[in-house]
Predict the 3D structure of the following.
Amino acid sequence: MDFRLLIKNGTIVDGTGAPAFKGDVRIAGGRIAEIGKDLRPSGYERVFDADGCYVTPGFIEAHNHWDGAVWWSPNLEPLASYGITTSINGNCGFSMAPARGDDRGREDIIEIFNFFEDIPVPPMRKMIPWDWQKWSEYKASFERNVRTPVNFAAFCGHIPLRLTVMGEDAWSRAATPDEIAQMCALLDDALSAGAMGLSTNQLDYDKHDRPLPSMLAEDDEYAALFAVVARHPGATIEAIVDHFMRMTGPETSERLGYLAHKAGARFQWAGLPTLKFQAEPGKRSDALHERFKAEGVDAWTGYTHIAFTFLLNFYRTLFFAQTGNPVWQGMVDVQDEDEKLRMLADPDWRSRARASWDGQHARDGAADPNAMLLRESEIGSGPVGITLAQFMAEAGIDHASDALAEWLLRNGPGSIVLQDPWETDEAIILKLLTDPRSIGNVSDAGAHGKLFCGAGDNVKLLTDYVRDRPLLTIEQAVHVLTGKLAHFFGLGDRGLIEVGRAADITVFDLAAIERRPEEKIWDVPEGDGSRTYRYTRAPAPMRLTLCNGVPTWDNGAITGRFPGRFIGPEPARETLAAAAE
Protein backbone atom coordinates (compact mmCIF):
# COMPACT_ATOMS: atom_id res chain seq x y z
CA MET A 1 0.00 0.00 0.00
CA ASP A 2 1.22 3.51 -0.86
CA PHE A 3 0.89 5.57 2.31
CA ARG A 4 0.32 9.15 1.16
CA LEU A 5 0.95 11.57 3.98
CA LEU A 6 1.33 15.32 4.49
CA ILE A 7 3.11 16.34 7.70
CA LYS A 8 1.97 19.91 8.41
CA ASN A 9 3.15 22.76 10.64
CA GLY A 10 6.29 21.11 12.02
CA THR A 11 9.76 22.49 12.66
CA ILE A 12 12.02 20.67 10.20
CA VAL A 13 15.53 19.71 11.30
CA ASP A 14 16.90 18.23 8.10
CA GLY A 15 19.92 16.28 9.42
CA THR A 16 22.65 18.39 7.82
CA GLY A 17 23.20 20.58 10.87
CA ALA A 18 21.61 23.55 9.08
CA PRO A 19 19.16 25.80 11.02
CA ALA A 20 15.69 24.40 11.64
CA PHE A 21 12.77 25.91 9.75
CA LYS A 22 8.98 25.76 9.77
CA GLY A 23 7.50 23.77 6.96
CA ASP A 24 5.53 20.83 5.63
CA VAL A 25 6.71 17.49 4.24
CA ARG A 26 4.79 15.41 1.70
CA ILE A 27 5.41 11.65 1.46
CA ALA A 28 4.34 9.43 -1.44
CA GLY A 29 5.61 6.16 -2.80
CA GLY A 30 7.83 5.65 0.22
CA ARG A 31 9.81 8.82 -0.53
CA ILE A 32 9.89 12.48 0.34
CA ALA A 33 7.93 14.05 -2.49
CA GLU A 34 7.81 17.72 -1.50
CA ILE A 35 9.05 20.13 1.18
CA GLY A 36 7.62 23.63 1.56
CA LYS A 37 5.40 26.02 3.44
CA ASP A 38 1.61 25.89 3.42
CA LEU A 39 1.43 22.83 1.21
CA ARG A 40 -2.14 21.91 0.34
CA PRO A 41 -3.49 18.39 0.84
CA SER A 42 -4.22 16.39 -2.28
CA GLY A 43 -6.79 13.63 -2.71
CA TYR A 44 -6.54 10.48 -0.57
CA GLU A 45 -3.77 12.00 1.52
CA ARG A 46 -3.63 11.82 5.30
CA VAL A 47 -2.75 15.10 7.01
CA PHE A 48 -0.66 14.79 10.18
CA ASP A 49 -0.52 17.94 12.33
CA ALA A 50 3.03 18.35 13.69
CA ASP A 51 2.44 21.71 15.35
CA GLY A 52 4.81 22.10 18.31
CA CYS A 53 6.94 19.17 17.11
CA TYR A 54 10.24 18.62 15.38
CA VAL A 55 10.26 16.73 12.09
CA THR A 56 13.62 15.00 11.58
CA PRO A 57 15.17 12.12 9.68
CA GLY A 58 14.68 8.74 11.33
CA PHE A 59 17.43 7.96 13.80
CA ILE A 60 20.23 5.53 12.94
CA GLU A 61 21.51 3.07 15.54
CA ALA A 62 25.24 2.90 14.79
CA HIS A 63 26.08 -0.20 16.85
CA ASN A 64 23.48 -2.87 17.61
CA HIS A 65 23.42 -6.62 18.20
CA TRP A 66 19.95 -7.66 17.07
CA ASP A 67 21.56 -10.36 14.85
CA GLY A 68 19.97 -13.20 16.80
CA ALA A 69 16.85 -11.68 18.37
CA VAL A 70 15.54 -10.35 15.06
CA TRP A 71 14.63 -13.95 14.16
CA TRP A 72 12.26 -14.38 17.13
CA SER A 73 11.42 -10.74 18.05
CA PRO A 74 11.18 -9.07 14.64
CA ASN A 75 9.30 -6.04 16.00
CA LEU A 76 12.63 -5.01 17.64
CA GLU A 77 10.68 -3.29 20.37
CA PRO A 78 11.12 -0.50 21.50
CA LEU A 79 13.02 0.95 18.51
CA ALA A 80 10.08 2.40 16.56
CA SER A 81 8.76 4.26 19.61
CA TYR A 82 12.16 5.97 19.92
CA GLY A 83 12.15 7.22 16.33
CA ILE A 84 14.68 4.65 15.08
CA THR A 85 14.46 3.64 11.43
CA THR A 86 17.84 1.96 10.78
CA SER A 87 19.75 -0.59 12.89
CA ILE A 88 23.38 -1.51 12.08
CA ASN A 89 24.46 -4.96 13.29
CA GLY A 90 27.27 -7.50 12.85
CA ASN A 91 29.51 -5.39 15.09
CA CYS A 92 32.49 -6.33 17.26
CA GLY A 93 33.69 -8.94 14.78
CA PHE A 94 30.55 -11.04 15.47
CA SER A 95 28.17 -11.83 12.61
CA MET A 96 25.80 -14.64 11.67
CA ALA A 97 27.76 -15.45 8.54
CA PRO A 98 29.77 -16.89 6.99
CA ALA A 99 29.38 -20.22 8.76
CA ARG A 100 30.79 -23.69 8.20
CA GLY A 101 28.12 -26.09 7.03
CA ASP A 102 28.38 -28.38 10.06
CA ASP A 103 27.21 -28.47 13.65
CA ARG A 104 30.56 -27.33 15.04
CA GLY A 105 30.62 -24.26 12.83
CA ARG A 106 27.10 -23.28 13.89
CA GLU A 107 27.85 -23.93 17.56
CA ASP A 108 30.97 -21.75 17.42
CA ILE A 109 28.85 -18.77 16.33
CA ILE A 110 26.08 -19.51 18.84
CA GLU A 111 28.55 -19.81 21.70
CA ILE A 112 30.27 -16.55 20.82
CA PHE A 113 26.99 -14.62 20.60
CA ASN A 114 25.82 -16.23 23.84
CA PHE A 115 28.94 -15.47 25.87
CA PHE A 116 29.78 -12.01 24.57
CA GLU A 117 26.34 -10.59 23.77
CA ASP A 118 24.02 -12.58 26.06
CA ILE A 119 21.98 -13.90 23.12
CA PRO A 120 20.17 -17.01 24.49
CA VAL A 121 21.20 -20.40 23.12
CA PRO A 122 17.85 -22.27 22.77
CA PRO A 123 16.22 -19.90 20.26
CA MET A 124 19.53 -19.49 18.44
CA ARG A 125 19.53 -23.25 17.86
CA LYS A 126 15.82 -23.83 17.24
CA MET A 127 14.39 -20.65 15.69
CA ILE A 128 17.09 -19.78 13.17
CA PRO A 129 17.23 -21.94 10.01
CA TRP A 130 21.02 -21.87 9.59
CA ASP A 131 20.50 -22.57 5.90
CA TRP A 132 23.58 -20.68 4.76
CA GLN A 133 27.33 -20.84 4.56
CA LYS A 134 28.22 -17.64 2.71
CA TRP A 135 27.13 -14.19 3.90
CA SER A 136 25.15 -13.67 0.68
CA GLU A 137 23.15 -16.83 1.50
CA TYR A 138 22.52 -15.52 5.02
CA LYS A 139 21.10 -12.29 3.61
CA ALA A 140 18.86 -14.23 1.22
CA SER A 141 17.56 -16.37 4.11
CA PHE A 142 16.91 -13.25 6.19
CA GLU A 143 14.91 -11.67 3.39
CA ARG A 144 12.85 -14.86 2.98
CA ASN A 145 12.12 -15.35 6.67
CA VAL A 146 12.19 -12.05 8.56
CA ARG A 147 10.22 -8.81 8.43
CA THR A 148 11.18 -5.79 10.54
CA PRO A 149 9.86 -2.29 11.31
CA VAL A 150 13.32 -0.79 10.78
CA ASN A 151 15.93 -1.03 8.06
CA PHE A 152 18.42 -3.75 9.00
CA ALA A 153 22.09 -3.59 8.04
CA ALA A 154 25.01 -5.80 9.06
CA PHE A 155 28.78 -6.05 8.84
CA CYS A 156 30.60 -9.25 7.96
CA GLY A 157 32.52 -10.33 11.07
CA HIS A 158 36.22 -11.17 11.03
CA ILE A 159 35.72 -13.94 13.59
CA PRO A 160 33.33 -16.10 11.51
CA LEU A 161 35.55 -15.49 8.48
CA ARG A 162 38.47 -17.05 10.34
CA LEU A 163 36.42 -19.87 11.85
CA THR A 164 34.88 -20.77 8.48
CA VAL A 165 38.23 -21.00 6.74
CA MET A 166 40.52 -22.23 9.53
CA GLY A 167 38.20 -24.19 11.80
CA GLU A 168 39.43 -24.56 15.37
CA ASP A 169 42.94 -23.50 14.28
CA ALA A 170 41.55 -19.96 14.11
CA TRP A 171 41.93 -19.82 17.90
CA SER A 172 45.60 -20.69 17.94
CA ARG A 173 47.65 -19.43 14.99
CA ALA A 174 48.18 -17.00 12.15
CA ALA A 175 46.57 -17.67 8.79
CA THR A 176 48.48 -19.01 5.79
CA PRO A 177 48.46 -17.12 2.47
CA ASP A 178 45.96 -19.62 1.06
CA GLU A 179 43.66 -19.18 4.07
CA ILE A 180 43.87 -15.41 3.75
CA ALA A 181 42.87 -15.70 0.10
CA GLN A 182 39.85 -17.82 1.09
CA MET A 183 38.83 -15.24 3.71
CA CYS A 184 39.12 -12.48 1.13
CA ALA A 185 36.85 -14.40 -1.26
CA LEU A 186 34.22 -14.83 1.47
CA LEU A 187 34.46 -11.14 2.40
CA ASP A 188 34.11 -10.16 -1.25
CA ASP A 189 30.94 -12.28 -1.42
CA ALA A 190 29.55 -10.45 1.62
CA LEU A 191 30.37 -6.97 0.38
CA SER A 192 29.01 -7.72 -3.09
CA ALA A 193 25.76 -8.81 -1.43
CA GLY A 194 25.47 -5.58 0.58
CA ALA A 195 27.36 -6.06 3.85
CA MET A 196 28.27 -2.78 5.54
CA GLY A 197 31.93 -3.74 5.61
CA LEU A 198 34.26 -5.73 7.86
CA SER A 199 34.08 -5.70 11.67
CA THR A 200 36.98 -6.95 13.75
CA ASN A 201 37.75 -7.33 17.46
CA GLN A 202 40.98 -6.62 19.32
CA LEU A 203 39.43 -6.51 22.80
CA ASP A 204 37.76 -9.68 23.99
CA TYR A 205 38.80 -13.03 25.45
CA ASP A 206 36.41 -15.97 25.58
CA LYS A 207 35.22 -17.94 28.62
CA HIS A 208 38.37 -20.09 28.42
CA ASP A 209 40.45 -16.87 28.57
CA ARG A 210 41.50 -17.35 24.94
CA PRO A 211 41.95 -14.25 22.76
CA LEU A 212 39.32 -14.18 20.04
CA PRO A 213 40.47 -15.50 16.65
CA SER A 214 40.68 -12.00 15.14
CA MET A 215 43.32 -11.06 17.72
CA LEU A 216 45.69 -13.60 16.12
CA ALA A 217 45.48 -11.92 12.72
CA GLU A 218 48.81 -10.55 11.52
CA ASP A 219 49.34 -7.47 9.37
CA ASP A 220 49.30 -9.39 6.08
CA GLU A 221 45.85 -10.78 6.89
CA TYR A 222 44.48 -7.37 7.83
CA ALA A 223 46.04 -5.70 4.81
CA ALA A 224 44.46 -8.22 2.43
CA LEU A 225 41.01 -7.94 4.01
CA PHE A 226 41.18 -4.14 4.10
CA ALA A 227 42.06 -4.11 0.41
CA VAL A 228 38.85 -6.03 -0.30
CA VAL A 229 36.84 -3.44 1.66
CA ALA A 230 38.50 -0.62 -0.29
CA ARG A 231 37.25 -2.11 -3.58
CA HIS A 232 33.61 -1.74 -2.53
CA PRO A 233 32.26 1.84 -2.54
CA GLY A 234 30.70 2.83 0.76
CA ALA A 235 32.00 -0.16 2.70
CA THR A 236 33.80 0.57 5.96
CA ILE A 237 35.92 -1.14 8.62
CA GLU A 238 35.01 -1.29 12.30
CA ALA A 239 37.62 -2.26 14.89
CA ILE A 240 36.81 -2.80 18.57
CA VAL A 241 39.89 -1.93 20.62
CA ASP A 242 40.80 -2.25 24.29
CA HIS A 243 40.44 0.79 26.51
CA PHE A 244 38.91 -1.34 29.23
CA MET A 245 41.06 -4.28 30.31
CA ARG A 246 44.61 -4.37 29.00
CA MET A 247 44.54 -0.80 27.68
CA THR A 248 46.08 -1.65 24.30
CA GLY A 249 43.61 0.58 22.44
CA PRO A 250 45.95 3.38 21.34
CA GLU A 251 48.55 1.06 19.84
CA THR A 252 45.96 -1.18 18.15
CA SER A 253 44.12 1.80 16.68
CA GLU A 254 47.34 3.20 15.29
CA ARG A 255 48.30 -0.14 13.75
CA LEU A 256 44.94 -0.82 12.10
CA GLY A 257 44.23 2.79 11.21
CA TYR A 258 47.36 3.10 9.12
CA LEU A 259 46.80 -0.31 7.51
CA ALA A 260 43.31 0.86 6.49
CA HIS A 261 44.73 4.17 5.24
CA LYS A 262 47.29 2.36 3.10
CA ALA A 263 44.52 0.21 1.63
CA GLY A 264 42.33 3.26 0.96
CA ALA A 265 39.47 2.13 3.22
CA ARG A 266 37.37 4.13 5.68
CA PHE A 267 38.06 3.07 9.27
CA GLN A 268 36.06 3.27 12.52
CA TRP A 269 37.76 2.54 15.81
CA ALA A 270 35.57 2.07 18.85
CA GLY A 271 36.83 4.07 20.27
CA LEU A 272 38.07 7.14 22.06
CA PRO A 273 37.25 6.39 25.72
CA THR A 274 34.74 8.54 27.60
CA LEU A 275 35.05 7.13 31.15
CA LYS A 276 37.27 8.87 33.70
CA PHE A 277 39.19 5.72 34.67
CA GLN A 278 40.33 5.54 31.02
CA ALA A 279 42.03 8.95 31.19
CA GLU A 280 45.63 7.77 30.68
CA PRO A 281 45.14 5.71 27.49
CA GLY A 282 42.49 8.25 26.51
CA LYS A 283 45.11 10.99 26.25
CA ARG A 284 47.15 8.86 23.85
CA SER A 285 44.08 7.97 21.80
CA ASP A 286 42.99 11.60 21.68
CA ALA A 287 46.42 12.55 20.33
CA LEU A 288 46.14 9.76 17.73
CA HIS A 289 42.66 10.97 16.77
CA GLU A 290 44.02 14.46 16.11
CA ARG A 291 47.03 13.06 14.22
CA PHE A 292 44.77 10.98 11.99
CA LYS A 293 42.79 14.11 11.12
CA ALA A 294 45.90 16.20 10.47
CA GLU A 295 47.37 13.52 8.19
CA GLY A 296 44.17 12.98 6.22
CA VAL A 297 43.62 9.44 7.49
CA ASP A 298 39.96 8.52 6.95
CA ALA A 299 39.60 7.26 10.54
CA TRP A 300 36.58 7.96 12.74
CA THR A 301 36.28 7.21 16.44
CA GLY A 302 33.14 5.61 17.85
CA TYR A 303 31.91 6.55 21.32
CA THR A 304 28.91 6.45 23.61
CA HIS A 305 27.45 9.54 25.27
CA ILE A 306 26.34 7.60 28.37
CA ALA A 307 27.99 5.01 30.59
CA PHE A 308 26.65 1.50 30.06
CA THR A 309 24.66 0.09 32.99
CA PHE A 310 25.70 -3.32 34.30
CA LEU A 311 22.92 -5.47 35.76
CA LEU A 312 24.70 -8.51 37.15
CA ASN A 313 22.73 -11.68 36.48
CA PHE A 314 24.72 -14.58 37.88
CA TYR A 315 23.82 -16.91 35.03
CA ARG A 316 24.96 -14.47 32.36
CA THR A 317 27.25 -11.50 32.86
CA LEU A 318 30.58 -10.42 31.36
CA PHE A 319 31.22 -8.06 34.26
CA PHE A 320 33.69 -10.29 36.08
CA ALA A 321 35.43 -11.45 32.89
CA GLN A 322 35.97 -7.85 31.83
CA THR A 323 37.22 -6.74 35.23
CA GLY A 324 39.71 -9.60 35.54
CA ASN A 325 37.94 -11.75 38.15
CA PRO A 326 38.15 -15.32 36.76
CA VAL A 327 36.92 -17.15 39.89
CA TRP A 328 33.63 -15.26 40.03
CA GLN A 329 33.28 -15.49 36.24
CA GLY A 330 33.77 -19.25 36.51
CA MET A 331 30.82 -19.45 38.89
CA VAL A 332 28.70 -17.38 36.49
CA ASP A 333 29.57 -19.71 33.59
CA VAL A 334 28.30 -22.77 35.49
CA GLN A 335 24.65 -23.13 34.47
CA ASP A 336 23.53 -25.79 36.95
CA GLU A 337 21.87 -24.15 39.98
CA ASP A 338 22.91 -26.79 42.50
CA GLU A 339 26.52 -26.56 41.37
CA LYS A 340 26.45 -22.77 41.70
CA LEU A 341 25.10 -23.01 45.24
CA ARG A 342 27.72 -25.62 46.14
CA MET A 343 30.50 -23.34 44.88
CA LEU A 344 29.16 -20.29 46.72
CA ALA A 345 29.11 -22.23 50.01
CA ASP A 346 32.46 -23.97 49.59
CA PRO A 347 35.22 -22.53 51.86
CA ASP A 348 37.94 -23.30 49.32
CA TRP A 349 36.03 -21.56 46.52
CA ARG A 350 35.39 -18.58 48.79
CA SER A 351 39.10 -18.30 49.58
CA ARG A 352 39.98 -18.28 45.89
CA ALA A 353 37.10 -15.88 45.17
CA ARG A 354 38.43 -13.38 47.73
CA ALA A 355 41.86 -13.41 46.10
CA SER A 356 40.32 -13.07 42.65
CA TRP A 357 38.15 -10.17 43.86
CA ASP A 358 41.18 -8.37 45.31
CA GLY A 359 43.11 -8.89 42.06
CA GLN A 360 40.56 -7.34 39.69
CA HIS A 361 41.68 -4.74 37.18
CA ALA A 362 41.78 -1.26 38.70
CA ARG A 363 38.44 0.24 37.79
CA ASP A 364 36.73 3.04 39.62
CA GLY A 365 34.03 1.26 41.61
CA ALA A 366 34.47 -2.16 39.99
CA ALA A 367 34.97 -3.95 43.32
CA ASP A 368 33.49 -1.25 45.55
CA PRO A 369 30.62 -2.67 47.62
CA ASN A 370 29.26 0.87 47.97
CA ALA A 371 28.66 0.88 44.20
CA MET A 372 26.77 -2.43 44.05
CA LEU A 373 23.03 -2.26 44.69
CA LEU A 374 21.26 -5.48 45.69
CA ARG A 375 18.37 -4.93 43.31
CA GLU A 376 16.22 -8.07 42.93
CA SER A 377 15.87 -11.32 44.88
CA GLU A 378 15.03 -14.47 42.92
CA ILE A 379 13.07 -15.98 45.82
CA GLY A 380 12.06 -12.81 47.69
CA SER A 381 14.27 -13.35 50.71
CA GLY A 382 16.25 -10.12 50.58
CA PRO A 383 17.39 -7.73 51.70
CA VAL A 384 17.05 -5.66 48.51
CA GLY A 385 17.31 -1.95 47.81
CA ILE A 386 20.52 -1.61 49.81
CA THR A 387 24.17 -1.67 48.77
CA LEU A 388 26.48 -4.61 49.23
CA ALA A 389 28.39 -2.48 51.75
CA GLN A 390 25.23 -2.02 53.82
CA PHE A 391 24.59 -5.76 53.71
CA MET A 392 28.16 -6.39 54.87
CA ALA A 393 27.57 -4.15 57.89
CA GLU A 394 24.17 -5.72 58.69
CA ALA A 395 25.46 -9.30 58.33
CA GLY A 396 28.82 -8.68 60.02
CA ILE A 397 30.81 -9.90 56.99
CA ASP A 398 34.24 -8.36 56.41
CA HIS A 399 34.92 -9.09 52.73
CA ALA A 400 32.75 -8.01 49.77
CA SER A 401 33.24 -11.34 47.95
CA ASP A 402 32.03 -13.34 50.97
CA ALA A 403 29.10 -10.98 51.43
CA LEU A 404 27.98 -11.31 47.81
CA ALA A 405 28.26 -15.10 48.01
CA GLU A 406 26.19 -15.14 51.19
CA TRP A 407 23.51 -12.86 49.71
CA LEU A 408 23.22 -15.13 46.65
CA LEU A 409 22.91 -18.20 48.84
CA ARG A 410 19.99 -16.56 50.64
CA ASN A 411 18.32 -15.15 47.53
CA GLY A 412 19.21 -17.51 44.68
CA PRO A 413 21.74 -17.18 41.84
CA GLY A 414 19.01 -15.73 39.60
CA SER A 415 19.04 -12.60 41.76
CA ILE A 416 20.26 -9.31 40.31
CA VAL A 417 22.82 -6.74 41.41
CA LEU A 418 23.13 -3.30 39.82
CA GLN A 419 26.65 -1.95 39.37
CA ASP A 420 26.73 1.84 39.38
CA PRO A 421 27.79 3.26 36.01
CA TRP A 422 31.36 4.47 35.86
CA GLU A 423 31.82 8.24 35.83
CA THR A 424 31.95 9.76 32.37
CA ASP A 425 34.29 12.50 31.19
CA GLU A 426 31.79 14.98 29.79
CA ALA A 427 34.48 17.20 28.28
CA ILE A 428 35.54 14.30 26.02
CA ILE A 429 31.92 13.48 25.17
CA LEU A 430 31.19 17.08 24.16
CA LYS A 431 34.34 17.19 22.07
CA LEU A 432 33.30 14.05 20.22
CA LEU A 433 29.69 15.14 19.75
CA THR A 434 30.89 18.10 17.69
CA ASP A 435 34.00 16.50 16.15
CA PRO A 436 33.85 16.01 12.36
CA ARG A 437 35.45 12.53 12.60
CA SER A 438 33.35 10.76 15.21
CA ILE A 439 30.61 8.12 15.25
CA GLY A 440 27.96 8.58 17.95
CA ASN A 441 24.83 6.74 19.06
CA VAL A 442 26.74 3.55 19.90
CA SER A 443 24.33 1.68 22.19
CA ASP A 444 24.78 -2.13 22.04
CA ALA A 445 20.98 -2.45 21.87
CA GLY A 446 19.83 -5.97 21.11
CA ALA A 447 22.57 -7.52 23.25
CA HIS A 448 22.80 -8.13 26.99
CA GLY A 449 19.06 -8.33 27.47
CA LYS A 450 19.53 -9.43 31.08
CA LEU A 451 22.18 -6.81 31.81
CA PHE A 452 20.96 -3.60 30.20
CA CYS A 453 19.04 -2.31 27.20
CA GLY A 454 20.77 0.32 25.10
CA ALA A 455 17.65 1.18 23.10
CA GLY A 456 16.63 4.74 23.92
CA ASP A 457 20.09 6.21 24.32
CA ASN A 458 19.35 8.39 21.29
CA VAL A 459 16.56 10.14 23.20
CA LYS A 460 18.89 10.68 26.18
CA LEU A 461 21.02 12.80 23.88
CA LEU A 462 18.03 14.93 22.85
CA THR A 463 16.72 15.42 26.37
CA ASP A 464 19.89 15.69 28.46
CA TYR A 465 22.17 17.54 26.05
CA VAL A 466 19.61 19.63 24.14
CA ARG A 467 16.49 20.22 26.22
CA ASP A 468 17.51 20.03 29.86
CA ARG A 469 20.84 21.83 30.13
CA PRO A 470 21.43 22.63 27.08
CA LEU A 471 24.88 21.78 25.72
CA LEU A 472 24.00 21.18 22.06
CA THR A 473 21.54 22.71 19.65
CA ILE A 474 18.76 20.55 18.28
CA GLU A 475 20.41 20.82 14.87
CA GLN A 476 23.72 19.48 16.19
CA ALA A 477 22.10 16.56 18.03
CA VAL A 478 19.93 15.50 15.10
CA HIS A 479 22.98 15.67 12.80
CA VAL A 480 24.86 13.32 15.16
CA LEU A 481 21.97 10.84 15.08
CA THR A 482 21.16 11.00 11.36
CA GLY A 483 23.05 12.75 8.57
CA LYS A 484 26.52 12.29 9.99
CA LEU A 485 26.02 8.55 10.45
CA ALA A 486 24.43 8.13 7.02
CA HIS A 487 27.45 9.83 5.45
CA PHE A 488 29.97 7.65 7.27
CA PHE A 489 28.19 4.36 6.56
CA GLY A 490 27.49 5.18 2.93
CA LEU A 491 23.71 5.25 3.41
CA GLY A 492 23.23 7.80 0.68
CA ASP A 493 19.44 7.39 0.50
CA ARG A 494 18.89 8.14 4.20
CA GLY A 495 19.80 10.53 6.97
CA LEU A 496 18.38 13.76 5.51
CA ILE A 497 15.01 15.30 4.89
CA GLU A 498 15.42 16.04 1.22
CA VAL A 499 13.16 15.56 -1.78
CA GLY A 500 13.70 12.17 -3.41
CA ARG A 501 15.15 10.40 -0.38
CA ALA A 502 13.58 7.44 1.36
CA ALA A 503 10.96 8.69 3.81
CA ASP A 504 12.62 7.59 7.06
CA ILE A 505 11.19 10.29 9.32
CA THR A 506 10.30 10.83 12.96
CA VAL A 507 8.08 13.50 14.53
CA PHE A 508 8.36 14.31 18.24
CA ASP A 509 7.54 16.86 20.91
CA LEU A 510 10.87 17.50 22.66
CA ALA A 511 9.09 18.42 25.89
CA ALA A 512 7.23 15.09 26.02
CA ILE A 513 9.91 12.46 25.30
CA GLU A 514 12.19 10.70 27.79
CA ARG A 515 14.59 7.77 27.89
CA ARG A 516 12.27 5.70 30.06
CA PRO A 517 13.42 3.54 32.98
CA GLU A 518 14.24 -0.10 32.39
CA GLU A 519 11.37 -2.58 32.53
CA LYS A 520 11.61 -6.35 32.94
CA ILE A 521 9.50 -8.30 30.44
CA TRP A 522 9.24 -12.05 29.84
CA ASP A 523 9.16 -12.42 26.06
CA VAL A 524 12.34 -14.30 25.10
CA PRO A 525 11.61 -17.88 23.98
CA GLU A 526 13.54 -20.64 25.72
CA GLY A 527 12.87 -23.15 22.94
CA ASP A 528 10.66 -25.42 25.06
CA GLY A 529 7.55 -23.23 25.11
CA SER A 530 8.63 -21.24 28.16
CA ARG A 531 9.92 -17.66 28.26
CA THR A 532 12.75 -15.89 30.00
CA TYR A 533 13.14 -12.18 30.61
CA ARG A 534 14.98 -9.24 29.19
CA TYR A 535 15.08 -5.56 30.04
CA THR A 536 13.53 -3.00 27.74
CA ARG A 537 12.02 0.47 28.02
CA ALA A 538 8.55 1.91 27.77
CA PRO A 539 8.01 4.12 24.68
CA ALA A 540 9.67 7.54 24.64
CA PRO A 541 7.27 8.15 22.85
CA MET A 542 7.55 9.78 19.45
CA ARG A 543 4.42 11.18 17.81
CA LEU A 544 5.14 9.42 14.52
CA THR A 545 7.84 7.20 13.05
CA LEU A 546 7.96 6.39 9.34
CA CYS A 547 10.24 3.79 7.78
CA ASN A 548 10.30 3.91 3.98
CA GLY A 549 7.19 6.05 4.15
CA VAL A 550 5.16 3.57 6.24
CA PRO A 551 4.10 4.37 9.84
CA THR A 552 5.67 2.01 12.37
CA TRP A 553 4.78 4.08 15.45
CA ASP A 554 1.71 6.27 15.24
CA ASN A 555 0.19 8.42 18.01
CA GLY A 556 1.07 6.15 20.90
CA ALA A 557 1.02 2.67 19.41
CA ILE A 558 3.04 0.21 17.37
CA THR A 559 1.32 -0.15 14.02
CA GLY A 560 2.26 -3.78 13.36
CA ARG A 561 3.70 -2.91 9.96
CA PHE A 562 7.11 -4.15 8.84
CA PRO A 563 8.42 -1.92 6.03
CA GLY A 564 12.11 -2.30 6.92
CA ARG A 565 14.57 -3.48 4.30
CA PHE A 566 17.88 -5.28 4.53
CA ILE A 567 20.11 -2.45 3.36
CA GLY A 568 23.78 -1.92 2.60
CA PRO A 569 25.89 1.00 1.43
CA GLU A 570 23.99 3.09 -1.12
CA PRO A 571 25.25 5.67 -3.63
CA ALA A 572 26.34 8.80 -1.80
CA ARG A 573 24.65 12.12 -2.35
CA GLU A 574 26.82 15.24 -2.57
CA THR A 575 24.65 17.27 -0.22
CA LEU A 576 25.12 14.75 2.58
CA ALA A 577 28.87 14.39 2.08
CA ALA A 578 29.35 18.16 2.02
CA ALA A 579 27.32 18.60 5.20
CA ALA A 580 29.42 16.05 7.07
CA GLU A 581 32.67 17.72 6.10
In short: Residues 573-581 have pLDDT under 50 and may be disordered. The longest helix spans residues 177-193.
